[in-house]
């Protein structure tokens, strides 16, 4: 009799497992839905939502003056991540941070996430928002690629560039380990997208880790938006467009004597906070190559800084403020950048 009851006991066990999974899924979806609705009420956009062709992008501007400084975030970051930098630049001129489509307060885009599409959307955003040039473009990480392409496509609008630990179109070729990391990142992002429907990234505080170092308000905003499926879906689409973006940026030319500051971190690329490794050394050499695109350039290496701390850590972010101020001064005085 005991042997005959074994299959039924196994069946009951798996039935309870399935019931538990179903309950967990229902509770998770409810938790994520309620929390997302709460986020919308608790974190209204500080700036304006501007139509760029059937969907709206968020842009937040403070300060007065010209040229206008435009802050473009890293792949997995948003406008709130410029909290240490934007108010300081507003003391000198108008400065705007914005959220690319699908990030932060911006609507998702039905279009691809390659650099040309991102640049087109930014141009439409600035035009439709009535924010006229000239611009100083500041790009962190992948946005270093975007702002280079913007300067190439709209040269009459851009008078200066600051590239914060920027991407380089040849970095995957020069640093083979990045190819494996990119594949792992793509897989992880898709997993996080799935889990976010059930509230797990929110429950685990993934966004809090992403915002470590920011003021409390902006850290809470980042945590809220990193917890949404839309964030991970957009990041996945961006990763899928990486090779296209690299090809598009390779087609850009030199920058003449435009003021250009390239800022590099000086810690390991693969292990946060460790001393500079071979990958970091290669990347910073590529950064020096980017700096040579202008005859009026500076390449600043910030000791002890990581890729993220250049915006998230107040002290490291101050080096970005100094770089932007240097570009603004060079534009105002007509004098070349000096160390």
Can you describe what's shown?
It contains 14 helices and eight strands. By secondary structure, it is of the alpha/beta class. It folds into two domains: 42 residues; 286 residues, Rossmann fold. It is globular.
Strand content: 5-15%
- Count of discrete domains: 2
Structural class: alpha/beta
CATH class of the largest domain, please? Alpha Beta
Radius of gyration over C-alpha positions, nearest whole angstrom: 22 Å
Summarize the model shown.
With 339 residues, this protein is an alpha/beta fold. Helix content is 51%, strand content 14%. Strands 1-2-4-3-5-6-7-8 form an 8-stranded mixed sheet, with helices on both faces.
List the helices and strands and how they pair.
Blueprint (H helix, E strand, L loop, with lengths): L1 H41 L5 E4 L4 E7 L5 E5 L13 H4 L5 E5 L15 H14 L6 E6 L2 H11 L4 E7 L6 H4 L2 H20 L3 H5 L1 H5 L5 H11 L2 H12 L1 H9 L9 E6 L12 H14 L5 E6 L6 H4 L1 H20 L6
Helix pairs in contact: 3-4, 4-11, 6-10
Task: Provide the descriptors you would attach to this structure in a database record.
single chain; 339 residues; alpha/beta; Rossmann fold; eight-stranded mixed sheet; 14 helices; 51% helix; globular
């Amino acid at each position: 009799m005991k042997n005959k009851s074994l299959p039924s006991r196994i069946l009951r066990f798996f039935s309870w497992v399935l019931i538990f999974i179903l309950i967990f899924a229902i509770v998770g979806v409810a938790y994520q839905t309620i929390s997302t609705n709460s986020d919308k009420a608790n974190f209204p956009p500080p700036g304006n939502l501007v139509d760029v062709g059937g969907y709206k992008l968020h842009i937040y501007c403070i300060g007065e003056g010209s040229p206008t400084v435009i802050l473009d975030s890293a792949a997995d970051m948003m406008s709130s991540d410029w909290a240490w930098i934007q108010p300081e630049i507003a003391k000198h001129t108008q400065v705007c941070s914005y959220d690319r489509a699908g990030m932060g307060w911006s609507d998702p885009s039905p279009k691809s996430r390659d650099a040309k599409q991102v640049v087109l959307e930014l141009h439409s955003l600035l035009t439709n928002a009535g924010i006229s040039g000239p611009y100083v473009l500041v790009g962190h990480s992948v946005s270093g690629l975007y702002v280079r392409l913007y300067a190439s496509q709209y040269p009459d609008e851009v008078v200066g560039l600051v590239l914060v630990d920027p991407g380089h179109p040849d970095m995957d070729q020069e640093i083979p380990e990045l190819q494996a990391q990119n594949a792992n990142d793509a897989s992880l992002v898709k997993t996080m997208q799935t889990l976010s429907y059930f509230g797990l990234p929110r429950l685990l505080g993934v966004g809090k880790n992403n915002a470590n170092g920011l003021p409390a308000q902006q850290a809470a905003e980042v945590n809220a938006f990193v917890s949404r499926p839309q964030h991970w879906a957009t990041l996945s689409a961006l990763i899928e467009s990486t090779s296209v973006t690299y090809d598009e940026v390779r087609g850009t030319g030199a920058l003449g004597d435009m003021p250009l500051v390239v800022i590099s971190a000086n810690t390991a690329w693969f292990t946060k906070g460790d001393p500079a490794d071979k990958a970091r050394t290669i990347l910073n050499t590529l950064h020096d190559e980017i700096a040579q695109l202008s005859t009026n350039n500076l390449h600043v290496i910030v000791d002890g800084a990581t890729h993220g701390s250049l915006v998230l850590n107040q002290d490291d972010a101050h080096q970005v403020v100094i770089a932007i101020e240097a570009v603004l001064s060079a534009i105002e005085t007509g004098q070349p950048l000096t160390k």
